[in-house]
Amino acid sequence: LNAPGPNQLYGIQLSLSKNTRDIYFSFRKTNGKDAGVYVVMQDKNKPDSELVDMGCHTPSQQDARLQPGWTYVDPSAQVVVVVEQVTDRAAILHVYRAPGASDLK
Length: 105
Known about the structure:
It is built from no helices and seven strands. Strand 2 (21-28) and strand 3 (36-43) form a beta hairpin. Helices cover 0% and strands 40% of the residues. It is an all-beta fold.
């Protein structure tokens, strides 16, 4: 793998004090499988982690990735992640602070 270029990342770690677990977003492409953005939650003080099944409408984790156009809001409702685009080589995400009541007019 090449090192990420300007404005590129391999993954994102989201560590918020209001959440008991850290959240990791990563781009994965497995041979023969669809590329996508996967979300993993990990305990802050332990190595225990779990894949979050974003395709919860099926009993399989084969569709666990976030699909283009899908939105994820962290459990404390502080951060929003939108998958803008996914290709076989990369994904583009829009990550921003969730609007609070004072931000809405």
